Amino acid sequence: MSGYLRSAWALGCMFVVFSTPAVLTAQQTPRARRESQAEENERLEKPVEWPALERRLFKDSHDLMVFKMATSWIPGEDHDGRFRYKLTATPLLKDEYASPQKQIGIMSKRLQQTCTVSIVLLDKDGFELRRVAPDLSLALNDDMDVVGLTANESEQMDASEYKSFVGSEGQSGSWNIAWNCP
Hints:
Layout: H1 3-26, H2 30-45, E1 48-55, E2 64-74, E3 82-92, H3 100-114, E4 116-122, E5 128-132, E6 137-140, E7 146-156, H4 159-166, E8 174-180
Antiparallel strand pairs: 1-2, 2-3, 3-7, 4-5, 4-8, 6-7
């Protein structure tokens, strides 16, 4: 074997010897993968309070509806987890009313009975991931006055889609409200 071939062969052997441990350490054991998945699930299960949205829904009114939402995710079999959300819609009165409580009830019932509302989930780049149609019901205070609307529901969503929505610290997705009110 010539000196050049011996050097090339030795260099090749050194490459194999020194690169093999890096390959072995880069692979996770099944236990490490389960622990990593459990940590990720724990992060996704924590409730996220999203920024409130103020929207003028009715053309004949200057009053706003304030939408607030909290979300979390529950793991399931074969990545079939559940996206959970709590949504509230509360009127923010801009005009003067003789009976503000009565007007809050009127606006809430009008939204519930005449409008189609969707929650729009967006990824960190602003692309739409999904639309969710909440089943809004009247929210009442202790005196049985209507104070707004609420929904507390869940639907199937895999972990990767929910991760695209919540993102990571400093790079999360966002949400919006879409509506059609005659």
